[in-house]
Amino acid sequence: MGILENIFGTKKEEINLDLDSQLAEIDAMPQEPADLYVVRLDLGSDGRTDAVMTALAEKKIVLSGISKLLERPERVKSVIVTLKAFISKTGGDMVLLNKDMLILTPSRIKVMRTKKAGVR
Fold it and tell me: Minimal CA–CA distance to 111: which of 61, 74, 66, 76?
């Protein structure tokens, strides 16, 4: 054993977190009925809004990835206009959560918007 190994010890065994198996275990857990559900539905590069609008009509909160849609700038505006019209008609809400994720809510559910600290 070398001097450094005496001081610092031998290399510790690395902890290997198998995220896929842990997520599979969570998915396999039985789900109890809930009042609300949150679903993730990516719009894809085509900007298909049908699945999102169906989920909203079923009173589900939708997290929607838009990164692939942003690769087609000519589709972005029409998709956003379509979703805004649906949200406006149903009384829900739509917020850009970050640069590539939208959160859309069904009727009578709103997202609170707060100002960042120090911003007026």
Answer: 61
CATH value at residue 47: 3.30.110.150
How do residues 85-115 score in pLDDT, each as one tens digit? 999 999 999 999 999 999 999 999 999 988 7
Give me the mean pLDDT over the 10-23 stretch: 64
* Domain around 98: 35-108
**pLDDT confidence band for 71 (50 / 70 / 90):** very high
What is this structure's pTM? 0.71
Of the candidates 80, 10, 11, 23, which has an alpha carbon nearest to the alpha carbon of residue 49?
A: 80
User: In total, how many domains does the chain have?
Assistant: 1
Q: Rounded to whole angstroms, how far apart are CA atoms 47 and 103? A: 15
Greatest extent of the chain over all pairs of C-alpha atoms, in Å: 73
In a domain, 2, yes or no: no
User: Residue 75 contacts by C-beta under 8 Å, 6 or more apart in sequence?
Assistant: 45, 46, 47, 69
Tell whether 83 is covered by a domain.
yes
